[in-house]
Amino acid sequence: MTTTFETQRAALADVVAIPVTPFAEDGTVDPGTYRALLRRLLDGGITTLTPNGNTGEFYALTPEERRLVTELTIEEAGGRSVILVGVGHDVPTAVASARHARELGAQMVMVHQPVHPYVSQSGWVDYHRAIAEAVPELGVVPYIRNAQLTGARLAELADACPNVIGVKYAVPDASRFAAFARDAGLERFVWVAGLAEPYAPSYFSAGATGFTSGLVNVAPSVSLNMIEALRSGDYPTAMKVWEQIRRFEELRARNGSANNVTVVKEALASLGLCRREVRPPSRTLPESERAEVAAIAAGWSI
């Protein structure tokens, strides 16, 4: 029987939340706090969760910690959310992570961009094909940050692997996104704006129907307000939300996104929801910059 992935496709056309991974005082993953943060997202109306995303510090976690985060997410969600597990690194590691996610009941995997100094376009197809073919029952979502990749290559991948159903597109160029999506097949995939709320209005205008979010950890209602406006084509309202979150996202993006996770955790710490600690190569904000983040978070309806 052919899998249609209708539930998974619908879940991608939404706010795709990337939970942070909180750490305890001794530096280990804090399961209790992580579960509490997940409950807050679920109770706030979030129905798509991506454990082991970049906001979850994927590359700073050990293999055992990544498995733990996947397990905690699926257990805590308890069917209240569609789970899109981040996988990556070398092919055997990514395949093992994807199979682990499948065994636990996840519905999809997001394949992080290959971290390698030499990525050919045909090699990109081979990498994703090896992972997608290992878990044909799961929806597969490539995370694209490579501006050189063409839409034709994505179409080639999907020809071989029909479970490649969506794309997290994170090249900061709305015109390039519009062309890429049309070259790959605008209606063939669910297009997720992978650069979160700041890019969501422009990417929705070009065909995206969902966006990822780290900000949602702090203020789920703000992210939901934006997607509701975008779904209804109410761009003036969407841009009001954009203005509301603009400074917060500028702080995250500053210095080549050095503080992307740091600012989110700082906001959560200011609300008493988790510790601010991040792992190298990220770093906590200096005392002099914490007050601005706390003031922004306090100003949202949370």
UniProtKB/TrEMBL annotation:
The top EC class, named as a word, is lyase
A GO molecular function annotation here is: 4-hydroxy-tetrahydrodipicolinate synthase activity
The keyword Acetylation belongs to this UniProt entry's keyword annotation = no
Q: What are the record keywords, sorted? A: Lyase
Q: Which domain of life is it from?
A: Bacteria
Q: What InterPro entries would the database entry show?
A: Aldolase_TIM, DapA-like
Per the Swiss-Prot or TrEMBL record, the active site comprises: Y143 (proton donor/acceptor), K168 (schiff-base intermediate with substrate)
Cite a single Pfam family from the UniProt record: DHDPS
On whether S-adenosyl-L-methionine is a keyword of this UniProt record, the answer is no
Q: Where does pyruvate bind?
A: T55
| SMART domains per the UniProt record, alphabetical | DHDPS (SM01130)
Record EC number: 4.3.3.7
- PANTHER family, per the entry: 5-DEHYDRO-4-DEOXYGLUCARATE DEHYDRATASE 2-RELATED (PTHR12128:SF19), DIHYDRODIPICOLINATE SYNTHASE (PTHR12128)
Q: What family does the database annotate?
A: Belongs to the DapA family.
The protein's name in its UniProt record: 4-hydroxy-tetrahydrodipicolinate synthase
Q: Which organism is it from?
A: Streptomyces griseoloalbus
